[in-house]
Structures are given as structure tokens and as C-alpha cells.
Write a structure and sequence with these properties.
Chain A: InterPro entries: ABC_transp_permease. The structure holds two protein chains of two kinds. Chain A has 14 helices and no strands. In chain A, helix 2 packs across helix 10 and helix 3 runs antiparallel to helix 9. A two-stranded antiparallel ribbon of chain B has the order 1-2. Chain B is globular and about 75 Å long. In chain B, about 50% of the residues are buried. Classes of the chains: A mainly alpha, B mainly alpha.
Amino acid sequence: MNLSGISPEVLIAALMVASTPILLAAIGELVVEKAGVLNLGVEGMMIFGAICGFAVAVETGSPALGFLGAAAGAAALSMLFGVLTQFLLSNQVATGLALTLFGLGLSALVGQGYVGVTPPAMAKLDLGPLGDIPFFGRVLFGHDAMVYLSLALVAAVWMFLNRSRAGLILRAVGESHDAAHALGYRVVAIRLGAIAFGGACAGLGGAYLSLIRVPQWTEGMTAGAGWIALAIVVFASWRPWRVLLGAYLFGGVTVLQLNLQAAGLAVPVEYLSMSPYVVTILVLVVMSSGRGRAALNAPASLGRVFHATT
Amino acid sequence: MIRLERRPEPSRAWTAATPILAVALTMLAGGALFAALGKDPVAAIRTIFWDPLFNEQFAAYSRPQLLVKAGPLILIAIGLSLGFRAGVWNIGAEGQYIIGAICGAGVALALYPAESALIFPAMVLAGALGGFLWAMIPAILKTRFNTNEILVSLLLVYVAEQLLASMALGAMRNPEGGGFPGSRNLQQYPSAHNPELLANTGMHWGVVAAFLAVIGAYVLLNRHITGFHIRLAGEAPKAARFAGVRPNALVVFCFGVSGALAGLAGLFEVSGPSGQISIDFNVGYGFTAIIVAFLGRLHPLGILLAGLLMALTYIGGELAQFMLGLPAAAIQAFQGMLLFFLLAVDVLTNYRVRLGRGEVAR
């Protein structure tokens, strides 16, 4: 085994890239759950975003348009969930599962003609002299625009939820939809907006996988990333900055195990490949066991059906 | 303006009618999807739903396949339905299915080439136990640490898939297989083989187990206190607590039963129709079974019918792939669509649709 081939700066830079898809999906789902909706369809929306973004980028030759297409496509798919849960009052757990199953099938269908195609490359953002700083230049300033956008999104969501009136209303809807309704807030409209935002973010995350991280289209390529994003929201106990921490932690494990695979560690590849999932489960256990602190912070109306009787 | 008014109790007529309505709507939407793909929608629907059973050319092959495909779906869905009724969400049946197959096949491969009538029963036990133990991970984490069982059971599917790959490439690889991945074929090991019991029917021990599970679940839900507790916990959680239902015991019970049944389904598949542990052994029965459970209204007899219908879409889908060049993914999307429509029309069971403006609130 040769560990000297693993350099910390490459490792950290790769970590940021590996975390970005999950960070995008998780920060979107955070907003959805803060509005009191549990959308288990993240995996389905992510993979649909991955193929939408891929198809648009290949057809137009522009990765930026691809990301827009991914956000729009996944948001449109999330509206299926929105209509079912908000207007037809269906069970959110079951509907989220349906969204995942449908998204996986639909994306495979759309993606048939795109197997083996190489997408147009996205240019790294040129930050001028910043990129030449030793160590930090490589780690922090040598990425594509989406990495910075995902970080900006975390900050924006934090600002929105904690420092804006609209964010306060969204949280009120998530804590007690009946009270928010009685105060005259439009619970269903606010929730639909949150679901669409969550869908768009999941779509961006998926497109980041198919356009930059991999970059290729294969069926089922998200491989559970959407579920890990859901787990990270719980890990973060519904706080935006902790979502960032969770996503980077997960990205770290992923990158480390990939590097250990490459270095030829004397453990079968399959056991290294399962480590991100095992670590996610362990982290979930630790977070939820601490006298239910994480559970206490969960939005009180999470997953409950809202039916205005008056 | 359209309003929804909650029914005092779910409508019985709509409970029975909604699955049929959902299937009809799915056929319409699916036909539109197939037309968008440039296929004749009527021919596609007929190839999927009619030809496997009644077309003289294909029926001889397709009819037995119906039970082969429906067996695991029904077996898994029966287990899942118990949990879904009680609000216990085991969505990792795919993983329990894989582990059941690995454990069952492991017993057979360890004893190869000994012949004994006890080997197959031992495999059945090992398969059920494997699925049971794999399901106990989310169940115990839920009851001990209050960890979300949906996420844990689902994440364990990916762990199980990696374990399967490791087994197919390493520990269980056929030493006489010329280096190809995959275990020995259990179909060629008489003591471990799960054969077709009646020629040309597709009936094997897994299908028998599925029928027994349907009967067992029916008796449990209608005649046994545990079944009553399951229904109570799902329909009225607060009343359940007063009635002395222990939520933790219920979680363990529901996960245990569904895990063991999924493990059995995996064992019967690996020892019968599939024959060997290979990387692509699992084909998504554990996830399709979720659709089957809901399509069957979480009722044992409904699940029996839903399992057969879903098996038909698998077989018909393969036929449509072969005859019309319909992509395999189209069937997957079609099955997902069915669950959507089912959940959408379910509103009619629990709510009355009223037209016109509502009365002024009092």
C-alpha cells in the first residue's frame, strides 16, 4: 500500500467536489422540511435533474444552460409530489417513495440516447492571483462556479430562514400549519414554493454529478446520494451550516475511501465502497440518540397532512 | 370551487374501486407515454396486459413466469403491508432480500457436494434468519436510539448490494467457474435446488410460501390480538397507547416479519429461478413490492391480486421490449406511475368531493 500518493491538498479539493451534489440536495430538502413537508423523493428528483441537465448541456453545448434545465426539470417533477400531497392530501412518505421510483424509471427512459456521450466541460472559475496562493489556491480557489454557488446557497438559506420575515413565515408553517393558517398565511402555496425550491436544488445536485463529478450519464448514477442528503438534514438537526458540515464530512469519507482504493489498501473494494453508507448510518445513530436533541429541533408539523376545514 | 370534506370513516366502495381506477388511469397515461416514444399505444398495452396470458404464441412460456415473478413480490409485500399499516416504514426490503439469498446460498455452498434432505430446510431457515437479522438493524436502532428507520433501512440496501458484489467476486465465487464472477449454480445441486413443483405452472416453494403468507397475514389481521394492535397503531396511535400497545415491540415485530419474509423471497429466488449469487442478482423486487403493497390496499387478498398484476407488467414489459422494442425503462416508469395514480385517487376514499362554495364557518 502506498499512502504517500495521497496529498492533503488534492484530497481536500476533491472533498469539496464530492460533497457539492449532496450539499445542494440537502440544503433544498432543509427548506422543504422547515416548511413541514417530508419529501422522500430527493433521490428521484436528483437523478431526473442529472439526466435533464445532461441532455440540455449536450444538446445546447452549454453546461450553464444544462444546470438551468436540471433545476427546471427536477422542480417540475417535484410539483407532482406537491400536487399529490398538498391538494390530494396523500401520505407524504408513500408519495415521496413513488417520486423516487418514478424518477428512476423516467430518467432511465429519457437517458437512453445519452449513454456513453461526453458532456461539454465546465470551465474552472479563474480567480486570478487567488489561485496561485500555495495550498489554499488549490484547495479553495481552483473550483468551478457550482461549488461556490452551493456555498452561497447555504448562506442565502441561512439568511432567509433566520433573518427574513418570509423565512419566519415559512418556519411558522412548518411548526404549526393550523396556527399559520389561522393567521392568514397561505400554507399550501408556501409549501408548494418550498417543494419547488427543494426540487430545483436536488436537480442542480444531480446535474453536478452527471456534468462535472463523473461526468457521464449512467442509469441509477446517483446511487443513494439523495437518501444521504435526507440523512444529512437530520444530522444537521435542520440547521443550514450543519448541513454544510455534514455534507463535507460525507464527502471526506467518500474521497478518502476512493483514495484508499487507489492506494491498494488490503481491504476488498466492496467494503470500502460501503463505508460512506455505514458512516452515514452511524452518524444518524449518534445524532438521534443524544437525548433526542435532534428530534426536538424537527419542525413540529413535519410530514403531517394539512387539511383546512374552514 | 371544489372542496374536500373528510369522511367520518373511509368509504368501503372507494377502497375497492380506487386500485381499479388507478390501473385504468395508468393504462391511459402509459399509453400516452408509449405513443410519445413512437409506439402504437393500443398494441403496447395489449402486449403488456393481454398477450402474456392469452396469445397462443407466447402464453406457453409466459404463464408459468407469472407465478415465478409474483411469488417474491407477494411474499415481500405481505410483510411490508403489516408495517405500513402500523406506520412502521421498512423500505429496505431489497437489502433483506439480498441478505436472505446470501445466507441461504451460503449454507448450500458450504455443504456442497453433500446430499441430504435436510439441506434445503436448513437453507430456508438461514434465508429467513438472514433477512430477519438485517431488518433488526434499523428496528433496534429505532427502538434504542430513536434513529429514523426509513433512512437506515434504505441505506442498508446499498451496503447489502456491496456485500453481494463482494460475495459474487470473492467468498462465494464458483471455484470451477473459470474465474467468472458468480457462485455455483444451485439448480445443478439437487439437495439445494428449489424446483418447479408442477410442470409448466411456475409453482415453486417460494410461491407456496407466498400463498401461506397471504393466509397467515389474513388470520393475523382479523383474528389475532397482534393484528388488532397493528391496525390500531396505524389508525389511532393515541388509542393504541391507552390500549397497552407497546410501540417498540410493534416496530421489532413488523421489521422482523417483513425482514424474514423478504429473506425467504431471496432464498427461494437464488435456489430456484435465478440459481446463483451474482452481482446483478437483485432486480428491484424489494422496491416494486412497495407498489404491490399499496396497490393491494395493504390487504392480504388485495396484495395477492396486485402481485399477480405487477408480475404481469414485468412479463408483458419483457415481451413488449422483444416485440415492439419498448425500452425496459418505460416499464419501470409505468410501474412508478401506477403508484402515483393510486395515491392520487386515494383522496376519494377518505374525502368527499364537494362542488360549490362552502358554508360559512361556524
